[in-house]
Structure formats: structure tokens, C-alpha cells
Fold this sequence. Notes:
Helix content is 29%, strand content 26%. By secondary structure, the chain is an alpha+beta fold. It has 2 domains: 26-292, Glutamine Phosphoribosylpyrophosphate, subunit 1, domain 1 (4-Layer Sandwich), CATH 3.60.20.10; 308-360 and 373-482, 3-Layer(aba) Sandwich (Rossmann fold). It has a 7-stranded antiparallel sheet. The protein has a 6-stranded antiparallel sheet with strand order 8-9-10-11-15-16. The longest helix has 15 residues, at 309-323.
Amino acid sequence: MNINQADFKKNMLSQAIDENAEDKLKDKCGVIGIFLNTEGCSENTEIAADSKTKTKIQSKELLGQNAAKLAYYGLHALQHRGQESAGIAVSNNGEVEQIRGLGLVAEVFKENKLQGLSGNIACGHVLYETTNNVHIENVQPFVNRSKLGTIAVSHNGSLVNYEQIKEFLEETGSTFVSTSDSEVIIKLIAKSYKKGLDRALTDTIQMIKGSFSLVVMTENSLIGARDTHGIRPLCLGQLENGWVLASESSALDAIGAELVRDIRPGEIIIINKDGVLSFDFGEQTAKHTCVFEYIYFARPDSIMDGIAVQEARLRMGAVLAKESHVDADVVVGVPDSGLGAAMGYANASGIPYAMGIVKNKYIGRSFIAPAQSSRENIVFVKLNVLKSDVEGKRVVVIDDSIVRGTTSRRLIEILRRAGAKEVHFRISSPPVKFPCYFGIDTPSRQDLISSNFSLEKTKEQIGADSLAFISIEGMLEALKGIDEKNYGYCKGCFTGKYPIAVPMAGLNTNGD
């Protein structure tokens, strides 16, 4: 499929430079769950809100009262997975309360609101909504109350049979308030809840198709589940007085929990006062973790399916240097996810590494973008170049991906303005040519530059002196070298071949 190239150029400004959409792929959300026992913890436990901030929580708060605060700190560590909205639901002696809202975690949970959430079980969520208009109805966790009990669900992923299940549920009396595919999950669980929790979960999970990492909270238990391909991540951690489920291990570090292991593909974990119960809900299949977790989405300090993310990026950079070496004076990485690969490239090539590019970390969702006619220049506000690092030099720039190409083009312009003699672009992922249907916000194929142009034409479009992507084989070599037993990844956005059959039309694009 090759879209008219003139139309592609025309759409680059109108679609890629919207103030609500960077020229990057985006993960749609992150989940966390906390279960605290009502006995046992040290006098003081240090809870790290992030890498720089630590807050001491007294033991009396931890004793069945502070699950919401732990979820809050964990969501801070998962903020990179979604910046549009956040929510926490808490179970306190069978009573479920919830706070959710639009904005960043710190914007949604003010101190007075957070103090009002007490209980020993919590379920939390951060969302990146794929539409320009974010609605409170789509904010998770979703809570369902009935005479059989109350449940809350946080979901990371996307269902490919959402429309069919929604139609089935509507025909049997269910109503929907959101446009999120995640709402069908809680409706299915509630519909079968009278059969018992285990049966309701198993029936639901066997009906839904696609990718999912689930955190489900009932009045007295916490449940985690991961789809049979393990596309979206989910891990289990242990606190001194409880357990944690989270999208990434960095969230465990943020609350002082120890990583126990990743939830296996096709596994359900049930945590209650009696301990942790594990069982498989489906046939074992080959693992297909989303490879972009290692390339871009996950925090570099996370460990995912046994692989340290930063080590994966260093290795990808080293392979990239081997595959596409170029004579140059300095290597720089595009902040933040290009930095690890840039270090790996520099070490393997022997070319000195320099900071080169500085990112303005204070450009958030409330940033007032310039008028439509000048929105393309927004990258000048987000990124700047250290002139002393690049002036008069041949520069190798390492980035994690090229999606539409607009950011790459503007970045090269900034480098040349700062006096770079040559700019050689190197990408630590293969060319993104196909959309993702499993929980990543990907532009349509007609808006992906690598789906429309050859390598040489793409180089001309972004204005680089040379351009090279890591090969699929090289990318897998880098990951396989770390942990061969975990070898298995979804590569659909590169190859168009997906681990799960996807419908040709009618896919829900507003899921999370």
C-alpha cells in the first residue's frame, strides 16, 4: 500500500502538529493494584514517590488505611503511560469509593481528596485517550455496583472484538456510558458474578479477544490477569504487609515493593487475606510482548519479562552501530527514550557521546500551542540543541522511532541551525509501517512516513545526510542476548503480521 505522496506531505502539518499529539507512538494507559494485609509492618516504611522524592508513611497508615496513597505514588511512576486522566478506587471494609478526573496524577489527586480515600485495597489507572476530546466517562477505573457486590476494573490494552461483545451485552440489557472498550470487561464480569468470582473472570477473559492487562478489585480481593500472548505487561510485587500489581516494575520501586515476577501470559492472580492464588485461564500460547515496550514505552529503570529495559536499549544501540556505522565526531540521543540507544551506539562505535539535545520537561497538556499556521514550530519549544556539542561536527542522532517524520525534520533543522556540519539519523527500531490494534495509539497507515516513502525518500523528507533503521533481526538479536528464554515479541507495526487476527474494519479506536 503506497499512499499518494503529495497527499502525505499535505497532511503532515494538519494532522501531526496538533497540540495534543506529539510525533510519537503513545501507550494508552498504565494500571496498578494494591492489597494490604491488616497485620504486620515496620514502624516506619519509606515510600519513594519518584526517583527524587521520599515520603515517610507511619505504620498506622499502612495498616489497612493507606492503599490509596500507595496507588497514588505508583501512578506517579506510571505517568509516562498516560497523561490525560487518572483514577483510584478503594475498598474499605466492603465499601468502595472512587476519585477520578482529567489531568495528571498530581492534578487529579489533591491532598484533601486523597485523604478521603481509606481502605486496604486499591485499584488505579492512568489514561492516554486516543481522541482529541477526553471525556470523564472514559476515565478508569470503571466501577460496577450491584446487589451481588461492587467491582472496579483497570485495563491496559485494546479489544479487537469490542463491537461484537458490546452488541451482545446491549441485547441482553446492559447499557454503556463510555466509548471505551474497557467498559465491556466490567459488564461481562458483573453479568457472570453470581457464578462466583473465579468463574466470572474465566468466562469474561475467554470471551474477550485482543490485548489486556487487567487489575480487578472486589470488596475483599485484588485480581490481575494478562492475555494469553502477554502483549501488554503486568508484574507482581510484594510489600512488607501486602502485594502490588503494576504495569511496570518502576511503580513497585516507587512504593518500596520488591519485584516478585511478571504475570505469565494467560495467568490469573487472585490476592486476598489468605494469600496469592494463581491459575491459567487458557491454553498456553507463544509469548508476544509488545516490542515497543523495550524500544520506547517503558521507563528505562523498569524490568519487564526478565529484561532490563535500559540494557535492551544499550544493546539495540550497539547493534545499530554495527549495522549502520558512519564516520562522525559525536553521538547524541533524542530525549528521553533515545538516550540509552545513543549510549550503546557510542560505546560500540567508539564515537564520543554528548548530551547535544536538551528537552524542556515543562511542556505539558496545558501548554498553549501557537496558532495552527505555526504549530509545526512547537518542536523548537520542546527541544533545543547545545551548540558547543555540535557546532562544526558530524553528528549521529539516535532516536527510538520515526512516525510521521515531522519531529525528525524539525530536529535536523535545529541541529543545522546550531552549526552541525553533517546530521546522520539512526533509529533503534525498524520502520513503523503498520498500525497497532493492541493498545498503542498509532496513526493510520496513510500517515506513517515509512509506509509511504522508501528509505532514500524518507531521508530526503526529513533532511538528513544519511538515515538507517535497526533491522528486525538486529532488534531481536539485542533482546535475545539478554534473556533467550523470553524470546517472543509482537512486531505487527513493523511487519503487518499480528499474533491475533484483527478485523479489517469496525475496530474501536477509543479504547484504552
